[in-house]
Amino acid sequence: MSSPVKYLEWDSRFFNFPVYKITVTNGLDFEKTLSQTEDSQVLYYVFSDSIITNDNILSKYNGKLVDEKVILNKTGLQFKDTFKNPIEEYREHTPNDDLYQLAKISGEYSRYKTDDRLPSYTFDRMYNLWIENSCKNDDCIIYICRQDQRIVGFITLEIGSNSGTIGLIAVHDSMHGKGIGYELMRKAENHLVGLGIDTILVATQRSNENALNFYRRLEYGVKTVSNIYHFLINTDNIENSL
Q: pLDDT digits over 135-156, tens only?
């Protein structure tokens, strides 16, 4: 059985201090876990199926609900071959300026942006790295839509053994209503069908109603909902952690 407390190496390098993920389970002494590092500079990502109602713990350990993460999935994928917009695979190993901009649009509701207690560099740097790593990852496919030599929409698809996962998706504001997002999703689904994979997953935030409605129109169903908290302990100088 895996431990409910996990050290996150990548995130710790990113923030330059320890970051842990805690999955709240029955029998876990949640406050005891937090108190073990109350004299250190630490960031905890706490995932809980239920809302944490103990205001004393939230106040004492600087905890805040930052996301209600919704994971949706779709099974029984079928190939669709009719596209109105020019969708193509992005094959460069580095993003261009359009992709950097779209990556940030995709993260408008991200907890790394909405939690203003995090360092000011967090959101931009996090999403720059995300799209850069996606371009370099052999197990990640990126589809784009170009209009007038500009990339106006994109989607990243990470390939697993039994399913695919959408990481980032965005369409430039000026191009909404043209079916680009819909066709990017269909292109990702087609790619999985071609590999013999019939399940796809995507995560969004409960507060992002437009995204939820978009996925529901594409017949995605809610698989799980998790409440995510950030507990920032001894992080008064967090802005200078780099």
A: 999 999 999 999 999 999 999 9
